[in-house]
């Protein structure tokens, strides 16, 4: 059984967007699959691993991440 998580990797530069990626763990091996979706760090809720509902990126990306 594989586990999957949606995560956010912020950019090294503060004013640039970071990337949303999937982390899949199967038989103790972790694989990261990057997506083409980029958001600002303030739009990401780390606790829920989701885009904040009131952010400008929510409507456009949340259905793609789900």
What are the main properties of this structure?
66 residues, 1 helix, three-stranded antiparallel β-sheet, two-stranded antiparallel sheet
Which structural class do the helices and strands define?
mainly beta
* Estimated radius of gyration: 12 Å
Count of β-strands: 5
* Strand line-up across the major sheet: 1-2-3
Element-level helix/strand string: EEEEEH
Question: Would you give an account of this structure?
Answer:
- The protein is mainly beta and 66 residues long.
- It has one helix and five strands.
- The strands form two sheets. A three-stranded antiparallel sheet has the order 1-2-3, with no helix packed on it.
- β2 and β3 form a beta hairpin.
- It is globular.
- The mean pLDDT is 87.
Topology readout:
Layout: E1 3-9, E2 18-26, E3 29-39, E4 44-45, E5 50-51, H1 58-65
Antiparallel strand pairs: 1-2, 2-3, 4-5
Explain briefly what this protein structure is:
By secondary structure, the protein is mainly beta.
